[in-house]
Amino acid sequence: MKILIIEDEPSLRELIERAMRNEGYRVETAADFISAETKLAGYSYDCILLDIMLPGGSGLQLLEALRAAGRRENVIIISARDAVDDRVAGLELGADDYLPKPFHISELVARVRSVLRRGRTGGSLTIDVGNISLDPTSRRVTIGGRSVDLVKKEFDILLYFMQRPEHIVDKVVLAEAVWGDYADESDNFHFVYAQIKNLRRKLEDAEADMEIRSVYGFGYKFSMKE
Ligand code: CA
Question: Do 105 and 134 fall within a single domain?
Fold first, then answer.
């Protein structure tokens, strides 16, 4: 389980980080809006702990962008702004929980356990890009209304691209997101190439109007066919 802590207050961030590591979670942190945005663009998390007032922007904007991209990560808002308006705004934008500051760290740990147990339910949300439709919950993909069979890694790669259409995707970041920790080993790039090759062929065969383009020396871009 991988957790992202977005919190600008150093002592609180470190306290939460320690508590989450004690729970056995892998933890990453971001201390401001821009670094949070960068992390979210490159990686997926099982749970995001999100402060609202951040240097450089609002946590609510990050949440809005995440949901607009069809991302279903669990989000718990941790914020001193305990006004009813923020709570409502956060939940309307699709936060899974809201914990006003100050809170006891054991309370936060309990909330994280609870959202992770619940999983990403709450109705399936399909992601549509071009004529491709993908349901992350049932792991079903249709192209032009017809079902397409993908093996697990092909599905994971397509999901990653569907969440980032028309964005340049770094192949190292892609490999890490899909294969996990061992992706730095050069061997794994052969798997990335092989899976992308297969996925391209399946998209082509199903007459998808999106394609995976190579961006020389960098990675890929999932783009509308010209
Ligand atoms: Ca703050």
Answer: no
